[in-house]
Amino acid sequence: MNPAEDGPDGGPDTPVVYELAADCTLSDASEGELYHAVVNGVVDYGVFVDLSDSVSGLVHESNLSTSYDVGDELVVELVEVRDNGDLSFTPVDIDDPETVAVAHEYEVAETGSLGEQVGDTVHLEGEVVQIKQTGGPTIFHVSDHTGVVPCAAFEEAGVRAHPEIDIEDLVHLVGVVEERDGALQVEVASLTALEGEEEDVVRDRIETALDERAEPHDVEPLIEWPALEQLFPDLEEIAKQLRRTVLESRPIRVRHHADGDGMCASLPVELALRRFIEETHQAPEAKRHLFKRLPSKAPFYEMEDVTRDLNFALEDQARHGQKLPLLLMLDNGSTEEDVPAYANLAHYDIPILVVDHHHPDPEAVDPYIDGHVNPYLYDEDYRITTGMMCVELARMIWPDITDELRHVPAVAGISDRSKADAMTEYVELAESEGYDEEFLSDMGEALDYGAFWLKYDPGRNLINDVLNVGCDDEERHRELVSFLSNRAEEDTEQQLDAAMPHVKHERLASEAHLYRVDVENHAYRFTYPPPGKTTGEIHDRKVKETGEPVITIGYGPDFAVLRSDGVRLDIPEMVTELNEEVVGGGVSGGGHLVVGSIKFVKGMREQVLDALVEKMADAELDEDLQSTTVGHQQDD
Amino acid sequence: MNPAEDGPDGGPDTPVVYELAADCTLSDASEGELYHAVVNGVVDYGVFVDLSDSVSGLVHESNLSTSYDVGDELVVELVEVRDNGDLSFTPVDIDDPETVAVAHEYEVAETGSLGEQVGDTVHLEGEVVQIKQTGGPTIFHVSDHTGVVPCAAFEEAGVRAHPEIDIEDLVHLVGVVEERDGALQVEVASLTALEGEEEDVVRDRIETALDERAEPHDVEPLIEWPALEQLFPDLEEIAKQLRRTVLESRPIRVRHHADGDGMCASLPVELALRRFIEETHQAPEAKRHLFKRLPSKAPFYEMEDVTRDLNFALEDQARHGQKLPLLLMLDNGSTEEDVPAYANLAHYDIPILVVDHHHPDPEAVDPYIDGHVNPYLYDEDYRITTGMMCVELARMIWPDITDELRHVPAVAGISDRSKADAMTEYVELAESEGYDEEFLSDMGEALDYGAFWLKYDPGRNLINDVLNVGCDDEERHRELVSFLSNRAEEDTEQQLDAAMPHVKHERLASEAHLYRVDVENHAYRFTYPPPGKTTGEIHDRKVKETGEPVITIGYGPDFAVLRSDGVRLDIPEMVTELNEEVVGGGVSGGGHLVVGSIKFVKGMREQVLDALVEKMADAELDEDLQSTTVGHQQDD
Amino acid sequence: MNPAEDGPDGGPDTPVVYELAADCTLSDASEGELYHAVVNGVVDYGVFVDLSDSVSGLVHESNLSTSYDVGDELVVELVEVRDNGDLSFTPVDIDDPETVAVAHEYEVAETGSLGEQVGDTVHLEGEVVQIKQTGGPTIFHVSDHTGVVPCAAFEEAGVRAHPEIDIEDLVHLVGVVEERDGALQVEVASLTALEGEEEDVVRDRIETALDERAEPHDVEPLIEWPALEQLFPDLEEIAKQLRRTVLESRPIRVRHHADGDGMCASLPVELALRRFIEETHQAPEAKRHLFKRLPSKAPFYEMEDVTRDLNFALEDQARHGQKLPLLLMLDNGSTEEDVPAYANLAHYDIPILVVDHHHPDPEAVDPYIDGHVNPYLYDEDYRITTGMMCVELARMIWPDITDELRHVPAVAGISDRSKADAMTEYVELAESEGYDEEFLSDMGEALDYGAFWLKYDPGRNLINDVLNVGCDDEERHRELVSFLSNRAEEDTEQQLDAAMPHVKHERLASEAHLYRVDVENHAYRFTYPPPGKTTGEIHDRKVKETGEPVITIGYGPDFAVLRSDGVRLDIPEMVTELNEEVVGGGVSGGGHLVVGSIKFVKGMREQVLDALVEKMADAELDEDLQSTTVGHQQDD
Fold this sequence. Notes:
The structure is a homotrimer. The first copy, chain A, is of the alpha/beta class. Helix content of chain A is 35%, strand content 23%. In chain A, strand 15, helix 8 and strand 16 (352-355) form a beta-alpha-beta unit. Chain A is elongated and about 115 Å long.
């Protein structure tokens, strides 16, 4: 608004004096008009006055009849705007002026298109998504409906500028667009928190825009499979939340099961989110800061892991001014065992999303989490593996990576021994990409073997090469898979050479075969394959060998791994019973009906195992029941 | 000194030629006077000559009668100082001049107020406290009596400038004050080490000023308690040394006991020092570089820890040009077991301060350390916990944090089961802050539980939230404490459910009850509570249950934890005897009279425990003796 | 080429129009000549045209008869080169011009001497050795025959410039030399990959120069010793490959045995390479980025280690655009056990060099590696220790460090109990440096002790002080060695006090003494000395005590360490036999004839040890056979 044109006419008797808002610029003032001013400097040749944060100039000594101190208020006339931009004023003595407030007339610029406004003063409205203190200025990262831009405010070297502004505040910012080392940055002139209606309007604008930009892509399922397709709306909701989290510059931390299916789930999501971050965030370090993936040692979210994750998140918040992260649990996170960890996070602003295919306990888990996709919630089961779901999830986030993922559901399914009918189609799909079934199985083995030696380091580049997701060298991928899977097989052979002669056999009353092996004493320790996998291998061989119902127990000093085929076990119930019956046994554990693991105190092993075998002897046979590897196993 | 005015008059027969010192500026020279000069460049139109590092100019070719090479010396007259600052000279031919040395007349600037001298050339005198080589210039951090400022000297890209200057040298530096990314920096023009008298004067000035600035604050004790107040002079000495260490830009590394009292001791000191560093150091990274806190796994300073600490310190020294650190031991460090680690540090410039309340061995320890506060040195005992002392220490360093610390001594005392009379007052003080006794006890549990899962990571942000020291969210603090202490209790219940049925009881000849439990075989391993704490819990229950004298032994394969109430044990003596009597038992260990732990070789457990029990059976009863948790326990 | 002078004369009928190559500068153009031009901007007052990447100017509107769009081609005359560098053109209408291509005439600058060309536009030809993406420009590190310089190319903030250029491409680059924070950098104007003949010429030039610069120094052996001197050509080849690797900016990763000889081998090589890197790379961080040393836990290259190393290398490649490293194995790497790790690396561009003195298996190893020095390949044996070889290797790389290394071969030899005749001379050499034999032995102990507590952290600064290689404080070195070796002796005494009473003795049929000790049950665990060293100490004492043939077995739950003196054992053969005879024993392991270690599954210990002793009882006596510590021992 130009007061010279638009201001109310005060008439000759009550002259109008304009009061510029703090963010007014010279374009809001006119020569010849009167303004309220404040003295901000006294020099030999006059006094300097401020009309707003950026409009100021000199009242020459020759025009002054009285002396002023800094802070004094007076009314001035804007006499002249010189060619070099300097302003000159004269003081005006008025008794009872009519004061008219002038708000700054401005266009709000968009962070996404500041590249064309280098050197200009711009107005931005958005949310503060990160506040990083440097040795010089404070850097406020401001996000609006079009992107994010760093804005440097300087108070004093190393001193936090605008301490009144917090992360997630909505602000109005005025500053000059600069190019710094080739990247855009705004040098802040003024920065104020929005309030009331203004805040609502801006929040609305950003929300609407984010919502729109967060919208996931429509994807055609890789294969026709109604069982999986019914989960699509839930997966789309997860995709939207993840995209939105990126747009809000909130970091994402993925915790996933450290096995084949877990990696088939997390690698596609990682690739999709990294591509999306690349597109939406200028800073090349954003990919690293906004996304972190970590395999979990245990098949659930342990107190140790959550304590460390929380500690790191708080450290990042304190040091880099980042938001607390969103936690995405993959192939993990649906069970009651995860609840203590979730409860620990509940005291902090850390949303949680879960995509899992382990038997869920939604009553226990759902109060703590913000999204939960699991086939059991649709009366489906583990056969829809997390890898299968997450390939579709990744495509919803960033569909361009589809070509890199066609073989992944087959690897996931084979790794987790999915008996889904759809496996045939998934394998055919992978074959059309040049993979035969044996090689797909080798990829699963190689993922397992690599993960074991990485000892819960994510090992991104190495694992990408194994799964051929985001890998740029097909030949290396093929060689690496062959090498690692061969090594895995050789090591397994060596392990079984040592263990097999010690496997004890007995025939249960039910006619089922029971095999027991002490994997602590009769297998190598601290090497591949670990106890759970060793037990599984023995079990599989015995099932093949006998063609009859088989139960296998691999036990160590304070744990036992259980596998069964063709026997109607109910491991969770057995654990409950054992805990009551064996006093001081400290029995706990879990798993599915026919596969799982239990823990107990070392000194009670004999009693616990004896009681366990007794229960197994009573179990009915049922040849439809087959064990898989998706149970919770002890394998650290 | 302006030679034109002050120089001796050489008379017409022996003209005076002035010899400017290297740091002289134009203000030390005058038109019309004669100067010794050195040719530094030969060009078509004349030669350039230097009078000092910064005074130089042209002798025009038209005035030259002979040719010169770079490095030649000659006498010149300063003919004119042009408006643009250029100087012109003419050569003067003099046979036997009287040479008068001219020192530069300057005012020494203060690093603390360079903000007003941006663009000016200044002189600084101070100590070099850090030398960091960058890919460009070498950065000398210069500290004087008012502060520290980085000074950039450039020799060649990535090449160490002024290799003759070492860390801790006193120097005279001339340079231009610049603002760089908003922070102040001095671009070095000349840099020389001070020597002799000059060095002494500057050292004196800095020492006096540092001494004054290091002076700790006078604080009123939180409660009236003469037993503690008599330690105040010693604590003030520690406070002064710590403040001075910060002012000298020497890093401080804290090692503390990883339990409740240890954290109640170290967190207040950390907060106080971080605030003090913030005030005295501009760089925001100073807080991180100058202060590091690490919990110790063992209750003493292990060879592994000291080796790693020393290695990191040497690495920081080599990479960042930092001084070696001062080591502050909290709730740890008073015993003979710490001596080997101290002896290792003795070969390096690493001062050591100790504040501890474990039974000290000053004869063994004091030769290695520079400050030692321990209640036993005043005929007091463990009841004055380290947390109680360190709250006062922290207030001496930075009194403004007093409001955040009033509840801490109570938590410390409850955690360490202090039977001090003053506990009543401490608890009342905490109650006035809104904490009831049960919640204070919960905070102790929560600290323990958090520390256990952090696995010896300091976990600053998380632990601050638990103790509510430097935490900004009261509600989160309360919720977090409730959550963690509940979890600790649940886990303890579960552990005792397993262990209790296996506790063996016998009645000693002395009528005391002896309880034994195999915490390796009848408790969960690698989880909370660990063996020592499990033993303590069992002991406490048995004391309550029987109301009579009780000894409890929790043993693992190669260790035993001992607790006793109402029995006159002398564990250190028993260890000495056992070591002699059980040949090849490798018995070692320690602790207090009635609480402690011993180690032995695995294969001799039966013999060691039998001999131990025999000794215990002979011990007299004495109902005043109560065990506490401050003994040295095995809990990793 | 100046077309005005050198171009073919097209005659009046067919005017010559010059077509400037993209990298042509104004020096390639002349006033009055005709040029092909492309419109790159349309403004009110005319159009701007490009003749090449850097030659452009205005065609004034007054000279235009028709309108142009961006991208239109036209022929122009260069009318004038103004004083300020601006060019003015007029359009020329020509039907059928004779076009003459003009290549840019330029001098190729040398990266090693850009310091004198700040502000100039230069041409560089070289290899891209690193590509680092920043938040602003992309930094290409370009290496030619004289050095390496960073070159900044800007596309868009954070966007990879010149995605068509890959690491290891040979390029032609035009840019302006700038000084940035004191370091040189080239701002890229154009960057193109060289192809065909041009590429060959440049590659040839670089190769020849690198080859020359990589040439190792001729060194006189420290002592006259033909056995070692015959290895010099092989060592020179290794030195050359290492120097060349540095010149090519490929990182070097050293993996070495974590014992005395291993450190005497790796520290000199580290010092030499760091000095060489310092001389050849400007960036001060180059020393850290281009060289990393890590001790190996096992006496061979484990799958876990190689997996981690590869993972880190791939991460450095992805994040910092570095080349994959060269792997240098020292005192390690010659045996079949290393092959799986090497096979894993074979899928990546990671050359491998080995300098070792353990019994090699060249048939298994050599297919995977690029250089192999081992005394056994010359019919010599372990007595030429790796430390002895590597001192000479280090001197070939950087001879100036010779004075710091004279005592090192003696330490290496004493550490590994070398019985070489040359030991006398090596010890004399060390004595001439002020070391007596006892102190040399203490240094070996101190290295061992320090390495143990560093837990496989390289601990550079600390270990340098112990070995006095790159240490700047002789007194500290002496004190530190005394302290650490004393501690090592004390700890060893304590360990043997516990273990000695449990040593079981029997007399074999062969009259040899057999000593057995359970180092898991009768020695402290997780402390110094570890099981293998404990066994060695016991063995040495028994050899001294008896003066007769002795075999010592130190066993734990799943391993046994073997030492023998005066008995003709063949441990590798015994392992092979045991593996066949003890079914399900999982026996594996290795070592030399008379020293080694074996592994087995825990539950079969009795059977394995009994069978082992039986075999030993049959072994013939042979007093010449002495055990040393260079066998592969279990010591983690």
